[in-house]
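Re: the 575-residue chain
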Amino acid sequence: MPSKLKTVLFKETRFAFDSLPPRLKALFVVLFIFFVGSLGVLVWRLNQNFIVTVPTEGGSLTEGVIGPARFVNPLLAVSDADRDLTSLVYSGLVRVGPKGNFIPDLAKSYEVSEDKLTYTFHLKDNLRFHDGAPLTADDVRFTIEKAMDPAVKSAKRANWNGVSIEQPGPKTIQLTLKKPYPAFLENATLGVLPSHLWQNTSAESFPLHEQNLEAIGSGPYKLSKITKDSNGIPTAYELKAFSDFALGKPRLEKITIGFYKNEEELVEAYKNGQIDSLSSLSPALVKELEESGQRVVKSTLPRVFAVFFNQNHNSVFLDATVRKALNLAVPRQEIVENIFHGYAEPLEGIFTSTNGEPTKTDLAAAKKMLTDAGWKLNDQGVMQKTTKASKDKPAATQVLTFSLATSNIEELKQIAEKLKANWTALGAKVEIEIYESNDLNQNVIKPRKYDALLFGEVMGRDSNPYPFWHSSQRTDPGLNIAMYTNAKVDRLLEEARQTSDLEERNKKYFEAETEIKKDQPVAFIYSPYFLYLLPSNIMGVSLPTLTNPAERFVNIHKWYVRTDKVWKIFANLYK
């Protein structure tokens, strides 16, 4: 509109307003204010209906872990610090989703053959490593072949036994199994190494490669800076969001992982504000921090802690009544409430928790069970039983005495003492044997040199009990540490392992559990929670069931601190 015309209209409007009687002027002003106010309310309501809050990029997180990193490498990672950084720096063909399912990561899609033996993965376009090099099926094949190489000594090697690899094209990888294995897809979460940086490294030199510390992958975060002490040992890793990450650039701009010598230093750093988050603390400390107002994120862990009765090492456990009485005397509820402060679930079987119901501990009934079976207290207050002589065997007296081995971990030592107290009250003589973790594994568990063993088993994402309960796994490297044998259980586990029908597989697992509970070769005690302290401003956190603590980062690209307001029609751009 021409400026002269604007001036004329303004003058004419003002003249008309000035010509109005005072009452009309007042009425006009009131109506005008009402109109402006109504318009403002209308606009506000429209904004409320059509404007939404969305996450946006920015912000950071500083986390502390115990122990330094040595192998930021998906094939060699052994410590929690190694695995934490590996999960941030590397990505695999698929990734664990927020509900514990598997979602495509480097792969845009995959198919499983009708016979459940061949898995074909198709890579996304324009995949890149942190150094800008393209990521192709060559890199995937190289990584899996190195995982299979016994000279590399990868902890992942067992996952790839009997798997053959084909590469139909630069973006396609085909993996074929000898037998169906429903849980195989989890193997495809293995982080992919950049072959152009590793291909000239001999298997023997793999642990010495500089990329074990100065890692380059294709995961959500890329290495920006390593801080080291005067001895050259890393004290912190600073990571920045990788804009070419296959699932989209992460929202948190920076992640810093700091390394601390022990729990005391870690907690001190947290209280001093040097770090924002931490995990793997004792339940007592977590309880203290949560009661002081700190945010604690919990997740279930597929871990079963129990006392395993080795019937081959101590014949007292051959008596089913003894095993049942010891089971009935286990103070599960007391252990969960007093030692774990409620951060655990009492167990009555491999899969069966108590669903929040108090567990039954009945020393009187357990003692009666023994006496009814012929056990009596001797002069030392220990139960003993004398068998009658037969044609083949002379009379013999058996005393209810055994050792209980466990690891030098505070919670396990406390549990061992509570078990000893209850079993002593029952009439058993129990000697506790404490071992350092490595000594326990190498010199006690592997050769099966224990009477009873207080230990925890990591069941895995699909909670497959085969490695722990099939009779073929009774000797090392098998994990059947109860030395359990049951033909019906063997058959059920074998059938479950072959079926891809989840409902049918779970049905057979629970049938096997029922049989195991009848025999009571172990005393199931508890399953712990994963406890993670996070600042309240970190949003978008969704923890699946974790098989190891590093999996807390599986959807870290979705975590955020900052938000913005946009029209609903644009909200999908921020997902």
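Residues 22-50 form the longest helix (29 residues).
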